[in-house]
């Protein structure tokens, strides 16, 4: 009898915990580069690894609520073509797309630091960029840019350069656990306010 009660409790718990509300909306986080596409690099630190780690933190931070589900365009060090990324985005029809990248400049050590946000030619993309900018004290909204992920995504999309790979300050912050968690927290706050 005790075994049947435990089995019933286990089945009920599994069913309850796997329930996902039907009205849960999707957010796509595109961790730029991947695989043999390293992105910017400095001293053995690669953009592809930093943005993937931050994307995973965003997904983890977002798991505590049930309004949105965060989906990553890649969840490991793999290369997905830009066409396959935008096909996935357009098939899933998310509320928003945030493509994560890191900037770099030709100098060994950049005098510039901080975020830059690129947008689509839409009001919703601009509004999303403004919300992100306010969370990041403020970030530069660099304007429209003819980038594949922005041009081909039908959903509101922004590309966020999280900082400069060749800025020691940015690089140390973006590679630290504390920095990555703070960035993830800021993005989840944007999602809640969207």
Count of alpha/pi helices: 7
Q: Give the helix level as a range of percent.
A: 40-55%
| Number of distinct beta strands | 8
**How does the helix and strand content classify structurally?**
alpha/beta
Major beta sheet summary: 6 strands, mixed
Ends apart, CA distance between termini: 50 Å
* Overall shape: globular
Q: Estimate the mean pLDDT confidence.
A: 90
Beta-sheet strand percentage?
15-25%
Query: How are the strands of the biggest sheet laid out side by side?
Result: 4-1-5-8-6-7
Rg result: 19 Å
The unreliable regions are 2-20
- H and E string: HEEEHEHEEHEHEHH
Structural write-up:
The protein is α/β, with parallel strands linked by helices and 194 residues long. Helix content is 44%, strand content 21%. The protein contains seven helices and eight strands. It has helices spanning 2-17, 47-62, 82-92, 123-135, 148-152, 168-175, 177-193; strands at 25-31, 41-42, 45-46, 68-72, 96-103, 116-119, 140-144, 157-164. A six-stranded mixed β-sheet has the order 4-1-5-8-6-7, sandwiched between helices. A two-stranded antiparallel sheet has the order 2-3. β6 (116-119), α4 (123-135) and β7 form a beta-alpha-beta unit. It is globular. The N and C termini lie far apart (50 Å).
